[in-house]
Amino acid sequence: MKITPDMLIGEIIAVDTGLIPVLMASGMHCVGCPSSQMESLAEAAMVHGIPVDYLVDNLNEYLEAKGE
Length: 68
What we know:
By secondary structure, the chain is mostly helical. The protein has helices spanning 9-15, 19-25, 41-48, 52-66. The chain has a domain at 1-30. The mean pLDDT is 90.
């Protein structure tokens, strides 16, 4: 599975909970916030001032390293 900017944070976490530390290391410290679960990755990236492509690349690199 590939992570895309339109995926909800909740969907991303459901793919692999190991993605939580990747998100947090990228500056998204509100991953546990209930409202963040219904935000798309693109929306959350915009709110935090993080380039969404940077997040997508980091998340997909993690999954590729795990062999998903």
